[in-house]
Amino acid sequence: MQSFAYSTPPSVAEAARTALQEDAKLMAGGQTLLQSMKLGLIAPSAVIDISGIAELKGITVAGGKVTIGAGTTHAAVAASRDVQTAIPALADLAGHIGDRQVRNRGTIGGSLANNDPAACYPAAVMGLGGSVQTNKRTLTAEQFFTGMFSTALEDGEVITSVSFPIPEKAGWQKFKQPASRFSLVGVFVSKGPAGVRVAVTGAGASGVFRATALESKLAADWSAAAMTGATVSAADLNSDLHGSAEYRAALIPVLAGRAVG
């Protein structure tokens, strides 16, 4: 690992200014960044640790939305009575990310900024019609996620919170890779203010996406039975040693049915 400058800014504004340095990287929980540095995949000139910024933490429920600070850990989301009551599927999702160490160090903002194509939180944001707030603007899920490990975040832009409309119904199912606990396929379904949405992670070559054909079926009949005989095209899906694109395509409607049921 190469040498780098390390700083702990006291505020989002200071972190955003520091992040404008060339080759600087923001770090929340460090669950991906530090491993990438150890493997020599990246070598930032500066690491800006934002894990201690108080304004990035906390969970509130108001105006029909659950808003979670970007620095809030997965464990805190899973344990929140407010989240468990308002969106139980979101608490369930957070409680099954990685292992205990990952859940107690990793943050929702860090996960979204990294946008791993098999990460769980992108499915929740897309599946609930959520929005990502930064120090500059508010982005819908469709605006924020732009591809594998790619987002709309600009230089000096910091995720500050994530908001989820409270749905009438929602569910989450994950077929995990047993060693990493990342999703081979994960499906988040919801029915609420954003309509019927079905978001898929782990399967798409470009990251999280909406399965619109399944959404139409569930809009007509919100039941597991609606997924009987439903199909998803294997085109543009991942194929690797863990499963072919066709295997993942077959899993998507099965998991969607379980999430609804």
How is this structure best described in words?
The strands form 4 sheets. The chain has a 5-stranded antiparallel sheet with strand order 4-5-10-6-7. The protein contains 11 helices and 14 strands. The protein has helices at 12-18, 33-38, 74-79, 81-86, 88-94, 100-105, 108-114, 121-128, 141-144, 212-220, 245-260; strands at 5-7, 24-27, 46-49, 59-62, 65-69, 131-134, 138-140, 145-147, 150-151, 159-165, 169-176, 183-192, 195-201, 209-210. Helix content is 31%, strand content 25%. It starts with a strand and ends with a helix. Among the domains are: 1-54, 2-Layer Sandwich (Uridine Diphospho-n-acetylenolpyruvylglucosamine Reductase, domain 2), CATH 3.30.43.10; 169-260, Enolase-like, domain 1 (2-Layer Sandwich), CATH 3.30.390.50. With 261 residues, it is of the alpha+beta class.
Please report the first level of CATH classification, the CATH class of the domain at 169-260.
Answer: Alpha Beta
Shape: globular
Beta-strand segment tally: 14
Could you name the CATH homologous superfamily of the domain at 169-260? CO dehydrogenase flavoprotein, C-terminal domain
Poorly predicted ranges: none
**Run of helices and strands:** EHEHEEEHHHHHHEEHEEEEEEEHH
* CATH architecture level-2 label of the domain at 169-260: 2-Layer Sandwich
Strand numbers in spatial order across the main sheet: 4-5-10-6-7
Provide the residue-averaged pLDDT: 96
Supply Rg.
18 Å
Tell me the structural class. alpha+beta
Q: Give the fraction of residues assigned to helices.
A: 25-40%
CATH-defined topology of the domain at 169-260? Enolase-like, domain 1
